[in-house]
Amino acid sequence: MSTVSIASVERPPEPPRGWSKARIGGHILLVFWALLGLGLVWFLVTSWNPELVQKYAPGYWSGILVTLKLVAISVVVGALLSIPLAYMRMSKNAVLSGFAYAYVYFFRGTPLLAQTFLIYYGLGSFRPQLEMVGLWSFFREAFSCAVFAFALNTAAYQAEILRGAIESVPRGQWEGAASLGLHKLQTLRKIILPQALIVALRPYGNEVILMIKGSAIVAIITVYDLMGITRLTYSRTFDFQAYIWAAVFYLIMVEILRHAIEWIEERITRHLRR
Amino acid sequence: MQSVWTLLSWGPDGWSDDIAYGVLITVLLAIATLPVGLAIGFLIALAKQSKEPSLRLAGNVYTTIFRGLPELLTLFLVFFGAQIALQKIVQLFNPTGTVEVNAFVSGMIALGVVFSSYASEVFLSAFRAIPHGQYEGGYAVGLNKGQTMRLVVLPQLIRIALPGLANLWLILLKDTALVSAVGLTDILRQAGVAARVTKHAFLFFGYAALIYLVLAIISSFGINAIERAVGRREASR
């Protein structure tokens, strides 16, 4: 009883929060967002058509699976490709580092869409040669072309992430490990990578998110991913909710991933917090 | 069989003049989008660094939505959504009227919205890098809020935000390729037409990719020049 009264005597009351311009503006914007959100929900509810849903919902589901499969395969293949690339980029050999630099520059400097077209349509020009090597059946499929293009693209970005992360570890760590008698591979595996991967986690997560978003372009080369299914549905029904649903699904995927990365980062940096 | 050089020449046999028109459209689109994206991005960043929670929330909703959506989907949402909305509005007055939405303008809006949501994050981190004393110093010499922002904070903000914005410009330049999907005759679309007509797909898409690369190289020269100019002002002070 007494403690409460002392506290309330000692601390002056909070100044009243007036309706400043910023506060009014903020509330207006929030009301705008709320109305927009409610409008969208209302639009989706009123245009809910069980027949359409039954017809196209399985398509959307398979589209989501195709998107996830495409991203998963190309990110993993890209990660494997990025290791030698990052090694070459950091090597002192001018030819190797020059090649890796050119590779990274090309794939980061040109649109993913152009790269995908170059591989899907462009490699068609070399059909006889590809048939001779037996690779034509691979490059005939839009999906495998997309995976190929995306893997090459993300390898360039991931090589830069890996290089940046490894170079962010101070040189003293290498020297300390060398003085303990660890050889280079051991040093890399036991000392450098555990520190580098903490730095790399967030960029890696961003790269995966960018790949999910970027994967929408495969719809243009006739892969039926989430975007492709959406385009198909819209061209058949002319119902705008096709696009709204796609937006909802993409947002859910990206937000889940973003929060998962934040959670992982929270976990693996526990030892750094004080 | 035409030779590669005839195909890439200027004039009636070659395609370079058509592709040059595409380059013009791409560059115009990127340049037209930049100020829109920068202005909206700056306003969003202002909202996100304000003390008012409702403003911050409103800004965060904007970034979450437009950073989470694929650029291509945003473009289609704008392109078809605007078409439907305008159609509805026009039909209120004229039941038989039809509206065609300009691909350039919808590309500009979609890319501008995406650019602004990324730019707002760049501006926000730049805002956080400016010490609070700078504002207080501004108020202490009798500047009002707007003047402090314009004369004290903004010059420092631009210097800090420049590398991040330069990066976004390069991303914007590459994202313009998406507008070829809604029918705008940019580099990629013209290259695609050339590829279909001549059946030299690898040549023309490779040519298009190299043009994007050249645009990126030119941009990075420009960015370096701007950075040097801004840095010099810093040094001479």
- What would you call the structural class of chain B? mainly alpha
Helical percentage of chain A: over 70%
Strand residue content of chain B? under 5%
* Total beta strand runs of chain B: 0
Tally the helices of chain A. Answer: 12
- Percent helix among the residues of chain B? over 70%
Secondary-structure-based class of chain A equals mainly alpha
As for the CATH topology of chain B, it is MetI-like fold
Q: How confident overall, as mean pLDDT of chain A? A: 90
By CATH, the architecture of chain B is named Orthogonal Bundle
Annotated CATH architecture of chain A: Orthogonal Bundle
Largest sheet of chain A: none
- Assembly type: heterodimer
Could you list the spans of chain A in which at least 5 consecutive residues all have pLDDT below 50? none
Radius of gyration of chain A: 26 Å
Number of domains of chain A: 1
Give an overview of the whole structure.
The complex is a heterodimer of chains A (274) and B (237). With 274 residues, chain A is mostly helical. Chain A has a single domain, classed as MetI-like (MetI-like fold, Orthogonal Bundle). Chain A is 80% helix and 0% strand. Chain A has helices at residues 2-10, 21-46, 50-90, 94-109, 112-120, 127-133, 136-140, 142-168, 171-179, 184-214, 226-237, 241-268. Chain A starts with a helix and ends in a 6-residue tail after the last helix. With 237 residues, chain B is mostly helical. Chain B has one domain (4-236): MetI-like (MetI-like fold, Orthogonal Bundle). Chain B is 81% helix and 0% strand. Chain B is built from 9 helices and no strands. In chain B, α2 packs antiparallel against α8 (187-198), α5 crosses α7 and α8 packs antiparallel against α9. The longest helix of chain B has 36 residues, at 201-236. The mean pLDDT of chain B is 89.
